[in-house]
């Protein structure tokens, strides 16, 4: 065991997360009158929330962003309550909760699943902090709660949510091992497996869950400006810590594979991570605008997800090949690359970024090409019940493609892994009032 000194900047995550949640609420409040927001939130809660239910389409931008901000703040409060260590996984969870609260998660349907995981931790006599990220991310199955509440009754929805929260942790642990760190949305695969069990059971009992398509258009200018400003804030905040040094270290980050686990919060100074978040956010937003797509609740949710994972595996060099592969796939799928499903596939498909980072850009293109086909079909049996449909599809691609590449190609591009990065920053001084002491790595 070798001990190295690793700078920790996690002291800033909580206040920045709170500021982000409040910013979402404030933006929502500028988009609608208070009574309209209350009515919109009530409408959001009543919907079944299956994919794709864009809250901007069903309730308007004001209620959608207020809901996103409130869910973000709720998530942060839970993380604080259980004393989460605050790292790259925390930023990922914030991005997921904020993003999917624009299309599928709301202030009502997330609670049964969270409490279900808390019961699991209690039964196992383990601290909830160990499972808190699973509890929050497993709300990908929140549409199951909403669907049963609408079709059968609130009691049925709550009970099913509790059950989901209890079974997801062991399923997620096993599913994670199958994917060899090549699918960043590992929990999406686990949630997809659970949904594959639930949907046939619902149909056997005479219920008919159906995927939906509520998709808003016409908001590109307003929402594009808002996203650009947010990304520029990230960039400015990162570069303010010393442009030359930050950009030098950002170049180092671009050489990492992104393979799970790649916690950039633990291995890079904060300015580097902020720059990565800003660059990736601009790339994702630019892709939607340049391809004639739509900025709405669903695509902004995908952009927030990309930004969140910029602290845990994604960077420009490993996401662009996958996005190019998805666009290339539209030529063979006979589906326009700016169709709703492929807009989301291009952004969420960057869950397979580790293929480009580990094996080189051609394999990233290949992964994106395969994903563009798989994602259009893999979600059909789930009937929109798993919000992380691209995570489920990405898991299928990873499980098949990774062993094939390793067995037949046996090629890996030179990348930097955690040990290399720890060594690079060994001399860096911790910053912030709560910077933690050195970590231990093998």
Describe this structure in words.
By secondary structure, the chain is mainly α. It has a domain at 2-204. Helices cover 66% and strands 1% of the residues. The chain is built from 21 helices and two strands. It has helices at residues 13-29, 34-46, 55-59, 61-81, 88-100, 111-124, 132-137, 142-151, 154-178, 186-204, 220-239, 243-253, 264-267, 270-290, 297-308, 316-333, 340-348, 353-359, 361-378, 389-408, 418-424; strands at 2-4, 439-441. It has a two-stranded antiparallel ribbon. α6 crosses α9 and α17 crosses α19 (361-378). Mean pLDDT is 90; it is low at 1-7 and 426-442.
Keyphrases for this structure?
442 residues, mainly alpha, two-stranded antiparallel sheet, 66% helix, globular, disordered N terminus
Strand order of the largest sheet: 1-2
* Helix and strand run: EHHHHHHHHHHHHHHHHHHHHHE
Count all strands and give the number: 2
**Strand portion, in percent?**
under 5%
Evaluate the radius of gyration. Answer: 20 Å
Based on CA inertia axes, which overall geometry fits?
globular
- Major β-sheet, in short? 2 strands, antiparallel
């Amino acid at each position: 065991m070798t001990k190295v000194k690793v700078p920790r900047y996690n002291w800033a995550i909580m206040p920045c997360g709170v500021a982000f949640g409040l910013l979402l609420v404030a933006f929502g409040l500028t988009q609608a009158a208070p009574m309209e927001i209350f009515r919109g939130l009530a409408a959001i809660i009543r919907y079944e929330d299956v994919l794709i239910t864009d809250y901007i389409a069903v309730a308007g931008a004001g209620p959608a962003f207020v809901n996103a901000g409130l869910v973000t703040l709720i998530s942060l409060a839970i993380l604080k309550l259980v004393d989460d260590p605050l790292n790259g996984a925390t930023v990922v969870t914030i991005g997921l909760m904020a993003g999917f609260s624009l299309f599928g998660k709301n202030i009502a349907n997330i609670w049964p699943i969270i409490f279900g995981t808390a019961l699991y931790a209690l039964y196992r006599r383990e601290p909830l902090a160990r499972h808190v990220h699973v509890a929050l991310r497993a709300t990908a199955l929140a549409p199951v709660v909403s669907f049963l509440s609408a079709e059968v009754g609130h009691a049925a929805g709550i009970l099913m949510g509790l059950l989901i929260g209890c079974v997801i942790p062991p399923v997620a642990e096993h599913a994670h091992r199958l994917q060899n760190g090549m699918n960043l949305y590992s929990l999406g695969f686990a949630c997809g497996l659970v949904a594959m069990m639930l949907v046939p059971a619902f149909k056997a009992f005479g219920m008919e869950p159906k995927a939906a398509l509520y998709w808003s258009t016409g908001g590109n200018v307003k929402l594009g400006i808002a996203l650009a400003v947010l990304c520029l804030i990230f960039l400015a905040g990162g570069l303010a810590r010393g442009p030359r040094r930050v950009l030098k270290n950002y170049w180092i980050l671009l050489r990492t594979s992104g393979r799970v686990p790649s916690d950039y919060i633990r291995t890079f100074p904060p300015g580097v991570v902020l720059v990565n978040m800003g660059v990736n956010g601009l790339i994702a937003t630019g892709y939607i605008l340049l391809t004639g797509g739509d900025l709405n609740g669903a695509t902004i949710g995908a952009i927030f997800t990309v930004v969140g994972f910029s602290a845990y595996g994604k960077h420009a060099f490993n996401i662009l090949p996958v996005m190019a592969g998805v666009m290339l796939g539209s030529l063979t799928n006979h589906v326009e690359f700016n169709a709703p499903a492929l807009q989301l596939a291009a952004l969420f498909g960057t869950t397979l970024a580790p293929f480009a980072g580990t094996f080189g850009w051609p394999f990233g293109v290949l992964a994106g090409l395969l994903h563009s086909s798989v994602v259009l079909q893999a979600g059909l049996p789930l009937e929109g019940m798993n919000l992380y449909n691209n995570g489920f599809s990405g898991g299928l691609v990873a499980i098949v493609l990774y062993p094939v590449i390793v067995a037949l190609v046996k090629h890996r591009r030179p990348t930097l892994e955690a040990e290399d990065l720890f060594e690079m920053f060994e001399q860096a001084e911790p910053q912030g009032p709560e910077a933690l002491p050195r970590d231990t790595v093998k």
